[in-house]
Design goal:
Distance between the termini: 169 Å
GO molecular function, one term: zinc ion binding
Strand order of the largest sheet: 1-2-13-4-9-10-11
Number of strands: 13
Protein name: Tripartite motif-containing protein 16-like
Largest sheet: 7 strands, antiparallel
Shape: elongated
Structural class: alpha+beta
Order of helices and strands: HHHHHHEEEEEEEEEEEEE
InterPro entries: B30.2/SPRY, B30.2/SPRY_sf, Butyrophylin_SPRY, ConA-like_dom_sf, E3_ubiq-ligase_TRIM/RNF, PRY, SPRY_dom
Pfam family, one: PRY
Keywords: Metal-binding, Zinc, Zinc-finger
Number of helices: 6
Amino acid sequence: IPQQHECKEEEGLLQQVCLPERNSSLDQEDPGHPEIKEEPEELYTSQEGEHLILKEETDTFMVTSTCEESEPNSDQLLSHNCPEPESRDEEESNIRPLSYFEDVTAAVSEVRDKLQDILREEWTNISLTVTEVDVLLSDPPEPKTRAGFLKYSCEITLDPNTAHTQLLLSEGNRKASYVKHQQSYSDHQDKFTGMFQVLSKESLTGRCYWEVERKGRVIIAVAYKNISRAWWRNECAFGRNDKSWALDCSKNSYTFWYNNIQTPVSGPRSSRVGVYLDHRAGILSFYSVTKTMTLLHRVQTTFTQPLYAGLWFYHNVGDTAGFIKLK
């Protein structure tokens, strides 16, 4: 009997424990008890609201406490959150005056102008160098045949204003002869008064070629126009100064003269001498002209002025020299 009583008590306890779980499962399966189903939601909602309200109050309390500890009043709070404006002096120091920018602009412009000048000068030097190189590369070499020289032939006439009074000009002033009697030339500052010399009327630049047919002893020359016209002095004699270059053509020999220095020249004798000038290249060449052309002497120098063809005679009456009309 006691054992049966204990079993009944245990069944009662199990029913009390299991009954809520069974009722809960029945509530979930049976939609006919809305009041029982909504009660947990209302409980949850009220608990959640109380939790949120409590959290807000707690946060507010913490913020207020923090502000009260760090900022005693609202004025200090505002002054703490808003930065204090800069003073007028600080603002003015941060604002560059207009004159400052004008000075900067002027300095930049000056540097720009100097740079442009430097570049312009350098470019000019480069252009001149390129031009000189181009000239040297593009100019054809000195001709080798008479036909090649004739491409550069020029017509030369003599200037009566430079002729000594004992030189007779003829054939349209292309020929000069040494004569015994003086000629009635008008006085002129360019006239040679000591040496029996004469200069051409035409100036010679670029590439030129001409031929002189001579009889007797004649000096064939080129000279600057500002050569002296004095009496018997080296300053005015062709080949005896630094303003003229001359080939002395005598009966049996040739001699080249420059700055009063003579250089013996060998080569076939002929009555005709060809002269080739490349003024820009500084080349002056003398040729003996027969059936062929033979180089007698070549000069490589720098000509600083236009040149003029010249003739110089000795005291031999009847000696003549004339420029051949090649065209």
